[in-house]
Amino acid sequence: MSNTETSPETWSIVRDQEHRYSVWSNDKALPAGWSKESFSGTREECLSEIKKIWVDPRPLALRQAMA
């Protein structure tokens, strides 16, 4: 089987409490500590959107400590 055959059709952007982003298949339950953002689409669309919105990849606690 290829990745294309096993890849779900729709993905969502998810974020944890440290404001780190990832993509998550819509056909799977979210892991504890992650919440779904409003954007969904193909995996590639979600990754592209993450590049636009996640401009500072440092965890939230570190950003707050350095402020």
Automatic annotation (TrEMBL):
Residues 2-52 form the MbtH-like domain. InterPro entries: MbtH-like_dom (IPR005153), MbtH-like_sf (IPR038020). SMART domains: MbtH. Pfam families: MbtH. Gene3D superfamilies: Structural Genomics, Unknown Function 30-nov-00 1gh9 Mol_id. Signal peptide: none annotated. This is MbtH-like domain-containing protein. It comes from Phyllobacterium myrsinacearum.
